């Protein structure tokens, strides 16, 4: 566990020290004592910092005896932006217990209302969850994930009532929140995971309405984001769904463009992973094509034999599309 935090000589530094107590000046840097209970504040601040172990292993010589056992020591060289992020996180964590409790209670009531088909209460608790998440995301960007989850649940609720226009509206809200997470969180992996999940939901909804161009765009973008996040299982499904959209449009080239990256993943991933994906659907779609153009039949056969054995054609032909599950958080 480690986390050094240093600060520029800036007024925010005084606020930080005031929050956490004593600090020890040094020629090259300043030390600040952080109680163990507050360690999470600094673990979520995106600073280029290191936390020292408890007990003063890396604490300044002239102050080791001044700190209580179990506390952590932070050394810092943050710029102004980083120190502001730390202060924002402090505010978020100070309010997180009450906010988190309120959100969990409202989110539970939302799900219970949906289960009871009580649309009025679901709307009330859904709005409450949204307001809590938006309010907290200003101070702590990791609340964006909660906001996306709420929009996703509400979109799924609208599917129950077959109100696909509203479902797409809330799915788009989830996509918008995911896109903003890139700036708010600044972590590409989380951004791409949020974005891919939101796009898959909206893509499925566009598919149910046969808005194939929009569905294709969402699925193909989701596939790229899943690949960035190294979630190759979901990437294969996103490529397959995008190819399905092109299939509905009778666009053979489009099908092949989307399935080619999925085939490449089939070459790279081990069989135990491939067999847990919808890769059979990829091969089945290719077997059903009359013109494979630039994809050699031998390549498809080699992948079939590699992952499914001698009877691969029969297994692929007998494969049925699993029920589509909409991601709910």
List keywords for this structure.
single chain; 329 residues; mainly alpha; Serine Threonine Protein Phosphatase 5, Tetratricopeptide repeat; 2 domains; 4-stranded mixed sheet; 4 strands; disordered N terminus
Describe the structure.
65% of the residues lie in helices and 5% in strands. The relative contact order is 0.07. The protein contains 14 helices and four strands. The N terminus and C terminus are likely disordered. The chain has two domains: 73 residues, no CATH class; 222 residues, Tetratricopeptide repeat domain (Serine Threonine Protein Phosphatase 5, Tetratricopeptide repeat, Alpha Horseshoe), CATH 1.25.40.10. The protein has a four-stranded mixed sheet with strand order 1-4-3-2, covered by helices on one side. The protein is mainly alpha-helical and 329 residues long. A hairpin with a 4-residue loop joins strand 2 and strand 3. InterPro entries: TPR-like_helical_dom_sf.
Blueprint (SSEs and pairs):
Elements: E1 6-7, H1 11-20, E2 23-25, E3 30-34, H2 39-43, E4 72-78, H3 80-115, H4 119-139, H5 144-160, H6 164-185, H7 188-208, H8 212-228, H9 232-248, H10 252-268, H11 271-274, H12 279-287, H13 297-308, H14 312-317
Parallel strand pairs: 1-4
Antiparallel strand pairs: 2-3, 3-4
Helix pairs in contact: 1-3, 3-4, 4-5, 5-6, 6-7, 7-8, 8-9, 9-10, 9-12, 10-12
InterPro entries: TPR-like_helical_dom_sf (IPR011990)
**Which strand order does the major sheet show?**
1-4-3-2
Estimated structural class: mainly alpha
CATH class of the largest domain: Mainly Alpha
Write down the overall mean pLDDT.
76
Strand proportion, as a percent range, falls in 5-15%
Number of strands: 4
Shape: elongated
């Amino acid at each position: 566990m480690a986390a050094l935090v240093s600060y520029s000589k800036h007024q925010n530094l005084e606020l930080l020290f005031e929050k956490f107590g004593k600090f020890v000046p040094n020629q090259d840097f300043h030390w600040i004592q952080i109680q163990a209970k507050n360690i999470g504040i600094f673990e979520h601040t995106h600073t280029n910092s290191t936390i020292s172990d408890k007990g003063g292993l890396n604490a300044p010589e002239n102050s080791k005896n001044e700190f209580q056992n179990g506390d952590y020591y932070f050394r810092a060289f943050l710029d102004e932006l980083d120190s502001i992020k730390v202060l924002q996180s402090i505010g978020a964590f100070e309010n997180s217990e009450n906010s988190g409790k309120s959100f969990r209670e409202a989110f539970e009531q939302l799900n219970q209302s949906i289960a009871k088909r009580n649309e009025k209460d679901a709307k009330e608790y859904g709005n409450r969850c949204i307001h809590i998440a938006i309010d907290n995301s200003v101070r702590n960007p990791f609340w964006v994930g909660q906001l996306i989850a709420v929009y996703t649940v509400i979109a799924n609720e609208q599917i129950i009532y077959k109100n696909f226009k509203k479902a797409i509206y809330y799915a788009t809200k989830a996509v918008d929140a995911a896109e903003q997470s890139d700036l708010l969180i600044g972590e590409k992996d989380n951004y791409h995971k949020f974005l891919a999940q939101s796009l898959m939901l909206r893509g499925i909804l566009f598919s149910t309405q046969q808005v194939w161009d929009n569905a294709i765009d969402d699925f193909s973008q989701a596939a790229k984001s899943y690949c960035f996040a190294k979630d190759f299982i979901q990437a294969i499904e996103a490529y397959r769904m995008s190819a399905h959209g092109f299939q509905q449009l009778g666009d053979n080239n489009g099908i092949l463009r989307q399935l080619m990256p999925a085939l490449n993943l089939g070459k790279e991933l081990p069989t135990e992973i491939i067999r847990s994906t919808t890769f059979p659907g990829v091969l089945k779609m290719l077997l059903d094509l009359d013109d494979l153009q630039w994809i050699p039949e031998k390549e498809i056969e080699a992948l079939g034999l590699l992952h499914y054995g001698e009877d691969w054609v029969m297994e692929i032909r007998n494969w049925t599309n699993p029920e589509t599950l909409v991601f709910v958080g």
